[in-house]
Specification:
It contains ten helices and 13 strands. With about 325 residues, the chain is α/β, with parallel strands linked by helices. The protein has a domain at about 5-175 and about 225-255: Rossmann fold. The strands form four sheets. Strands 3-2-1-4-5-6-11 form a seven-stranded parallel beta sheet, sandwiched between helices. Strand 1 (about 5-10), helix 1 (about 15-25) and strand 2 form a beta-alpha-beta unit.
Length: about 325
Amino acid sequence: MSTQKKVLVTGGAGYIGSHVCKALHANGHIPIVFDNLSTGHERFVKWGPLHLGDITNPDDLNDAFAKRHPDLVMHFAASAYVRESVADPMKYYVNNCLGSLRLLDAMQCHGVKHIVVSSTCAVYGDCKSLPIDESTPKDPQSPYGRSKLFVEQALRDLGNASDLKWVALRYFNAAGSDPDLEIGEDHTPETHIIPLAIQAALGMAPALQIFGDDFDTPDGTAIRDYVHVNDLATAHVNAMTYLENGGASSAFNLGTGTGTSIKDILDTIKRLSGHDVPHSVTARSPGDVPALYASATRANRYLDWTPTQSSLDNIIKTALNWYRHHRTGKG
């Protein structure tokens, strides 16, 4: 274990950020949540202080750095819906691009040199060769993906011009929940396929809408690489240690290397819950691609990371348990 660090976690009251805060605390660190609670939950802030603030507000950021004195930053604060980004691109360029630049500027002003950034597989777009590795050409198909690629490019340029050291972690579909049931997935609105399907199966939400069953995939439904949120949390702690030990700035894929279709998800929920998932099929969403799944060979080599909790059964089981025990409607 590395020596205790104070980690400013932007977006730490959200789904992935809160699981990372729990992992940081378990590894002896102090997570300081920086969040405006626009989509996060104060009840998810359990392992360190909450500093209220907006990522796009320089005064809020400078106040947090001046009062909290973090040793490094983990950056999750962002808008993250592909369909919404197509309809409202300005929101994504302001929150994701401008917000990240203001965070990086505050880091420079306060002498903080290490950052681990939440990126996304959406930077790749519609890939012709699978699995996707980090050398795959970047061709994002949505403003969301383009905003995240911009942040990666900014990190690279700033790192070349200064002593900033960074890791960008390109997630392939976070899923599942804390097995201890302290935190879980709770978005408003919910757009992720697994919680929507579970809620439909348990009678907690309307029938699931499947956006397209005519993709060029074996069963016609979209294929994605689902990674348990606890495995993602471990990767962030490992990335922090990697930077502390002098690792070079880089981007890493976080995925299982296995593609799972929407039909696979519905079948697994039925088997584990005992309930069918009522659903209907509508047109594909703008910007959606048929299949995305990762090679995480570099994360294994450099970050000593292997997903151990990301079987589809475990993802569905932990998510089911979260909804059965904690979800009673709006957050």
